[in-house]
Design brief:
Largest sheet: 2 strands, antiparallel
Strand content: 5-15%
Number of helices: 1
Number of strands: 2
Strand order of the largest sheet: 1-2
Shape: elongated
Distance between the termini: 102 Å
Order of helices and strands: HEE
Length: 106
């Protein structure tokens, strides 16, 4: 009788290990499918956003060259956004840190 109980416990532990193994494999498969989906989705977003305007070199295009913020109180903070796009067919690399020139109006 003692051997039957021992054998039943051993079989129950073996079934539990098998179930855990399948659960682990299933979760791993779901994880891998999720990672593949994110990678493929990321590649779609990195597609070309602008038409090529310059061949053989990079070219930076700014969506607006001037911004008129009107009259502002001295010391106030303003926020402006620019969309910068490489419209050349070569990679755009900055050799120095870019800067923005602020010109005070008359």
């Amino acid at each position: 009788m003692h051997n039957k109980k021992f054998e039943a416990r051993r079989l129950a532990k073996k079934r539990l290990r098998t179930q855990r193994t399948w659960l682990f494999l299933a979760l791993g498969g779901v994880f891998l499918i999720g990672v593949a989906f994110l990678l493929l989705r990321g590649n779609q977003n990195s597609q070309q956003l602008a038409a090529i305007e310059v061949n053989g070199a990079p070219s930076l295009k700014v969506d607006q060259e001037q911004v008129d913020l009107g009259d502002k109180k001295l010391g106030s903070t303003v926020k402006v956004s620019f969309l910068l796009t490489n419209v050349g067919d070569q990679p755009l690399r900055f050799s120095e840190q870019p800067y923005v020139e602020v010109v005070e109006g008359c």
